[in-house]
Design brief:
alpha/beta; Rossmann fold
Length: 494
């Protein structure tokens, strides 16, 4: 943009030119909270704050906005710092009187030249289960790994540790440039006692994270537990909604097989985070350090898919393939998760299209925007328009679907078969659950996954005979299938 051209106030606020007054107001408040001189003293950002104020004063007044719009050149489509490509399972929909299914494979990446944005500092809180069942090797490895992460922090990073059982204790208060030796001693002194009450730990972790909820940081809570929490799940989920609204991520890690993976999936999914299964205490270090390295590598903290419903089209299923696997909750506002500097975001969407949605020539599947949340940027990132549609023809095409999508769907089918088996078993239909597992084993054998196929067949036999899973059966199958899905993504989708 030349110096004589008017500043694009819409780009400054990170909104489209057809944004509603409510969207403009919301964008201004987000930018003002981040840039206000009382909270942010970074060089040059007071001037940016004044420009943001000027932009809002202009766009919030309909008369001024109309006059300003008349001075603007045509809108540039590539203001956004991200790019998005879509592959479809079929080149077209067929004109017919029955519902049809369509899959879309999304790849969301940093726009060329934008990776130079410096890696933002971290604000990490470890919320660690210290209940009696953690006593011994589990707690020893957890403490050693927390100290390893502490030693890996940069001077500008904020770190805190909360330990919880049936009550929570702040072991390391949120801060930076503290006495590392003192913090190490505080972590080493943790002992196991009591039961498991996740809400107390999560609430204390949120309090510590909010103490340094400053602009320009990646804020994330890593929750680690080996047990079930009882009666406070809904309170935890409501806390996760609050975290999502403040761009605080939550990831959950479960040790052994006594914890509730459905609950941890839901908790993490609300913020674009992930859940992980730690089968053996010796694996704690690897997974915790891997999660820390992922946070250090983040380009965009989260990408929010905001979509409007299309009559006759249902977003039936959504799943993130990378950088971290996880089912996503289909809704008008979906937290898709992070983009890493060297790893794009891959998501599969499943649509069910009713005959009423078929237009004369095309069918619109989804209309909305992709909004990247990037802590390192002083201003909101410009969203990217997101419109998915397919031609409508009298007959289906013989064209082969893209290899990337076929590979991803074949592995996702395995994951969904174990999902169906679990749902059937939970409802008491053990025969149906066993059939799903047997189908899953057949697919696994065809792909050469003999070891996992044997595990699945053993669980199917146990369900038929004993009407129950083995102690670790559900989680072994679920998370080993997830690992297979991630392996397929790395080998065949890049």
């Amino acid at each position: 943009m030349s110096s004589s051209a008017p500043m694009d106030y819409y780009a400054l606020l990170g909104v489209f030119r057809d944004a509603s007054q409510e969207e403009i107001k919301r964008a201004y408040f987000e930018a003002a909270q981040k840039l206000h001189p009382d909270k942010n003293t970074a060089a040059g950002e007071t001037e940016i704050f004044l420009e943001v104020q000027k932009a809002y004063e202009t766009l919030a007044n309909p008369k001024r906005r109309n006059l300003y719009d008349a001075t603007l050149p045509p809108e540039i489509a590539n203001y956004s710092v991200i790019t998005q490509e879509t592959l479809f399972s079929r080149p077209n929909l067929v004109r017919m009187d029955e519902p049809q299914m369509m899959y879309a494979f999304l790849e969301i990446s940093p726009r060329e030249g934008t990776k130079k944005i410096p890696a933002p500092p971290l604000n990490i809180c470890l919320a660690l289960d210290r209940s009696t069942s953690m006593q011994g090797e589990k707690l020893d490895v957890v403490k050693a790994t927390a100290i390893q992460i502490l030693r890996s922090l940069r001077p500008e990073d904020v770190f805190s540790v909360v330990a919880f059982s049936d009550r929570a204790e702040v072991v390391v208060p949120a801060g930076m440039n503290a006495e590392i030796k003192k913090q190490e001693n505080q972590i080493q002194m943790m002992t196991a006692f009591g039961g498991t009450e996740i809400y107390s730990g999560l609430a204390a972790a949120m309090e510590q994270t909010r103490r340094t909820l400053t602009p320009g940081r990646i804020h994330h809570i890593i929750l680690l537990t080996d047990g079930n929490t009882y009666g406070d799940e809904q309170s935890c989920l409501e806390l996760a909604d609050e975290a999502a609204a403040q761009n605080i991520g939550i990831s959950g890690m479960g040790i052994g097989h006594e914890w509730n993976d459905i609950f941890l999936d839901a908790l993490a999914g609300k913020t674009g985070g992930s859940s992980a299964y730690i089968a053996q205490p010796k694996d704690i270090q690897h997974l915790l350090v891997e999660k820390f390295n992922t946070l250090v590598s983040i380009y965009a903290d989260d990408v929010i898919l905001e979509c409007k419903e299309t009559d006759g089209v249902k977003l039936n299923y959504a799943f993130r393939l990378q950088p971290e696997l996880g089912a996503l909750e289909p809704s008008p506002l979906v937290h898709l998760g992070p983009i890493l500097r060297d790893t794009p975001l891959h998501v599969i969407l499943e649509f069910i299209v009713q005959p009423s949605a078929l237009g004369e020539k095309t069918a619109e599947l989804m209309r909305g925007s992709l909004k990247p949340i990037i802590s390192a940027r002083p201003l909101p990132a410009q969203p990217l328009r997101f419109n998915l549609s397919r031609p409508v023809r009298a007959q289906s095409s013989d064209e082969t679907p893209p290899r990337k999508l076929i590979s991803a769907l074949s592995r996702l089918t395995l994951y969904r078969l174990q999902d169906r088996a679990r749902a059937a078993a939970d409802s008491g239909d053990y025969d149906s659950a066993a059939r799903s597992l047997n189908r899953m084993a057949t697919h696994l054998l065809a792909q050469g996954e003999t070891s996992l196929a044997k595990t699945v067949l053993l669980e199917a036999d146990l369900l038929e005979k004993s009407k129950t899973w083995s102690g670790s059966g559900q989680k072994d199958i679920k998370y080993k299938t997830r690992a297979l899905l991630l392996g397929g993504t790395k080998e065949n989708l890049l």
